[in-house]
Specification:
By secondary structure, the chain is of the alpha/beta class. Helices cover 45% and strands 14% of the residues.
């Protein structure tokens, strides 16, 4: 029998790029257990996965998301050679990929056009450049706010919305447990991609320097948030099932991207099996 729905229940989805398939498995477990949140919060690829769950928080809805990951991997690099991407870098001096292609792909697969049209309340976070602060979107064009939350510096250019420019939300709040508490949630299901179990290594290549620094910051914030909750908050950090998750990825590692893309089924299945066991026991 499905568990009783809590009055203030949140599902929080962290960032993780091409490792986001783990979150799909966790969402499948939540949907099968009949856990329907009052609010869905997402960062980076968690914003993408969270939007689909907020549109249809049922096993059928999660199955559609899983098919999308398997068939048209949301984190897949856009069509074109590495030479073309390096040409983009040479022209812009700041990023490898254009927003136009990413926006077209999103518009083709998103279930609704605006945040307000989602079935469940949904928010995602991005980092405002001008204010050097986190910004939460709870309305507006869904493709644009997801792109803002996913705009990894150096890979995508900043996303302009209104009079501000936004970059990846993981910079300011990679696993937004604190936002759920601020909104009044008392029970929080935390979906993360498993990198916390993997020890970091010093950077070996120039492009890894920024990525390692980013990873240190996100882990520190998440560890702090987990231990700084007020009394009465029930946290459920869903497990990934131990599937291998690299500490960080080179944005130039096309072979690594393809290898990880092929592991989507393993990500989804391992996280689902571990999470469904956890939910049955808790």
């Amino acid at each position: 029998m499905p568990p009783e729905r809590h009055s203030r229940l949140a599902v929080v989805l962290g960032g993780g790029g091409i490792l986001g398939g783990h979150e799909v498995g966790m969402l499948r477990a939540l949907a099968e257990r009949g856990i329907v949140p009052d609010v869905v919060l997402g960062t980076s690829v968690g914003a993408l996965n969270g939007a689909f769950f907020a549109a249809d928080p049922t096993p059928v809805g999660v199955q559609r998301l899983a098919e999308l990951w398997r068939d048209t991997h949301p984190a897949e690099l856009p069509a074109g050679s590495m030479l073309r991407r390096l040409g983009t870098l040479a022209r812009t001096g700041t990023h490898l990929q254009s927003l136009a292609a990413a926006r077209e792909r999103l518009l083709a697969v998103l279930p609704v056009k605006r945040v307000e049209q989602l079935r469940l309340p949904f928010q995602c976070v991005a980092a405002s450049i001008e204010r050097a602060a986190e910004h939460w979107f709870d309305a507006g064009p869904l493709a644009d706010v997801i792109l803002a939350s996913c705009a990894v510096p150096g890979i995508f250019p900043p996303v302009e919305i209104g009079a501000e420019h936004f970059i990846d939300g993981g910079i300011v709040n990679s696993v937004p447990v604190s936002r759920a508490v601020a909104l009044g949630a008392r029970t929080i299901y935390v979906l993360q991609v498993g990198r916390l179990e993997q020890p970091l290594r010093p950077p070996r290549w120039p492009w890894e320097v920024g990525l390692v620094a980013f990873e240190v910051a996100r882990r520190h914030r998440f560890a702090h948030d987990l231990t700084a909750q007020p009394e009465g908050i029930v946290l459920h950090v869903l497990p990934t099932g131990g599937s291998a998750a690299p500490a960080y990825n080179s944005p130039y590692g096309q072979l690594q991207v393809r290898r990880l893309a092929r592991s989507v089924d393993r990500q989804i299945d391992s996280a689902y099996e571990a999470s469904i066991r956890y939910l049955k026991e808790n």
